[in-house]
Amino acid sequence: MYGHVRATPDEVYDHIVGLGQADHWLKYFCNVVWRTPSHTGVDSVFDETFDFMTIRVRTMVDDRGGRWAAAVDRCSLPIANKMLEDVRLSDDGAGGTDVDWKIHYDPPLLITPAAGLGNAFFEYMLNKSLEQLDALVG
After folding, report:
1. Tell me: the pLDDT tens digits for 64-108?
2. How far apart are the C-alpha atoms of 11 and 21, rounded to whole Å?
3. pTM reported for the whole predicted model
């Protein structure tokens, strides 16, 4: 999913990774519980609850203003055998940020026929989230 936010890559990163004001921009977001003392850095862990599921997220790549990637180690819904989230940010040269936000997942065999619906849902969720983040900080 590609989007644009009228804020610097560092500002966008801080909102996406730190979940700053997430209840105002992240679609379906309910709350976050940090499981590690540090909220940033490789191997930081948090539980993120949405209206429809809770996931445990473990940071794998932490490059402020550039890239954040994480593994979803647990999920309250049986939608994936493995799931990764990958966010890449680039300066647009005009004070804003181009965002490439992807969710990669390996659905269980039983769910594979409906994987297209999952892809469409995640794309909708991320598009709305970036639109709302842009409205908040832009």
Report:
1. 999 999 999 999 988 888 999 999 999 999 999 999 999 998 888
2. 12
3. 0.93
